[in-house]
């Protein structure tokens, strides 16, 4: 009886399900009203990782939409579809189902890959700009024309390690993801999200983003892009990821967070929230 916009006006906080083109259910949150911001979470996590950004930005008058990537969190867990094209199509389904326009896209780590592929595959007609937070673009794999990348054998060895004892790897790498000042409870919360991800999904997604070359695509993106990266990022070293990503984008602003690790959405949440808020409002003169 009621359209989505009427329901949204009546209830400013809601959860729903979006159907991907192959029928996979995608769990979504749609909070607040105003200029829309769509959050894409990092590898092996789910949309709860953005709760400190969503709580802050909705309180400031923005509409925040987040979703669990297929295979993650409360979304469906199909056998396949973990390639960058399908994941970008899932993001398109979320945006189109919610009929969002003038969107600010925000992605962390692997989420940056889905945003880049969405913009080159679906266009920027609904997008005002994008924020790539600790991205893993432009290209991680070592090749003849990418000599500073990581040897593919190292990625294969890592996936082999996960196949034997993924929880131990998560435990060993939790502390470097944060800072010494991060509470044990917060670190445990972050680690628990990764442990909820099915092993096959984690492996398939990691293979997809580590072997995909986004260098040409980044040059094609014309909307404003804010690239945020910490110089203490052990998961995605800034000189391999953040700096070359910004250098390839035609309209990029690069923000260096000194001392920030990969988990800066927690460790530097106040600064990140302010930067995302200013960026989103500045894109369309909403101030």
Précis, in short:
The protein is 44% helix and 17% strand. It is of the alpha/beta class.
Question: What attributes characterize this protein structure?
Answer:
alpha/beta, 287 residues, Rossmann fold, 8 strands, eight-stranded mixed β-sheet, single chain, 44% helix, globular
Describe the structure.
The protein is of the alpha/beta class and 287 residues long. It has helices at 4-10, 51-59, 84-97, 110-122, 152-177, 184-195, 199-211, 215-220, 242-248, 264-267, 269-283, and strands at residues 13-19, 25-31, 36-40, 63-67, 103-108, 127-133, 225-230, 252-257. Strands 1-2-4-3-5-6-7-8 form an eight-stranded mixed β-sheet, sandwiched between helices. It is globular.
> Which CATH C-level class is it?
Alpha Beta
Rg is: 18 Å
SS element count, helices: 11
- State the CATH superfamily name: Alpha/Beta hydrolase fold, catalytic domain
Structural class: alpha/beta
Q: What separation lies between the terminal Cα atoms?
A: 35 Å
**Biggest sheet architecture:** 8 strands, mixed
Overall pLDDT score: 94
Q: What is the 3D form? A: globular
What's the number of extended β-strand segments?
A: 8
**Low-pLDDT residue spans:** 1-7
Order of helices and strands: HEEEHEHEHEHHHHEHEHH
Helix content: 40-55%
Number of domain modules: 1
Strand order in the sheet with the most strands = 1-2-4-3-5-6-7-8
Proportion of beta-strand residues: 15-25%
Annotated CATH topology:
Rossmann fold
Assigned CATH architecture: 3-Layer(aba) Sandwich
């Amino acid at each position: 009886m009621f359209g989505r916009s009427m329901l949204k006006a009546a209830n400013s906080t809601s959860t729903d399900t979006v159907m991907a083109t192959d029928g996979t259910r995608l769990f979504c949150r749609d909070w607040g009203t105003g200029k829309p911001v769509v959050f894409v979470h990092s590898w092996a996590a789910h949309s709860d990782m953005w709760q400190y950004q969503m709580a802050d930005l909705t309180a400031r008058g923005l509409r925040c939409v987040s979703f669990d990537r297929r295979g993650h969190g409360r979304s469906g867990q199909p056998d396949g579809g973990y390639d960058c094209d399908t994941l970008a199509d899932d993001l398109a389904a979320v945006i189109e189902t919610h009929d969002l326009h003038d969107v600010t896209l925000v992605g962390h780590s692997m989420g940056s890959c889905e945003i880049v592929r969405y913009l080159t595959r679906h266009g920027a007609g609904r997008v005002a700009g994008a924020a790539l937070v600790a991205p893993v673009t432009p290209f991680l794999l070592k090749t003849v024309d990418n000599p500073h990348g990581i040897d593919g054998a190292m990625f294969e060895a890592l996936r082999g390690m996960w196949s034997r004892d993924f929880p131990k790897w998560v435990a060993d790498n939790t502390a470097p993801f944060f800072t010494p000042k991060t509470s044990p409870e917060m670190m445990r919360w972050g680690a628990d999200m990764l442990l909820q991800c099915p092993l096959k999904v984690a492996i398939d997604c990691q293979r997809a983003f580590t072997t995909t070359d986004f260098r040409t695509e980044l040059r094609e993106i014309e909307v404003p892009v804010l690239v945020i990266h910490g110089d203490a990022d052990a998961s995605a070293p800034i000189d391999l990821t953040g700096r070359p990503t910004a250098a390839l984008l035609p309209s990029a602003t690069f923000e260096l967070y000194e001392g920030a690790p990969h988990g800066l959405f927690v460790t530097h949440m106040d600064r990140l929230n302010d930067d995302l808020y200013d960026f989103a409002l500045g894109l369309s003169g909403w101030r």
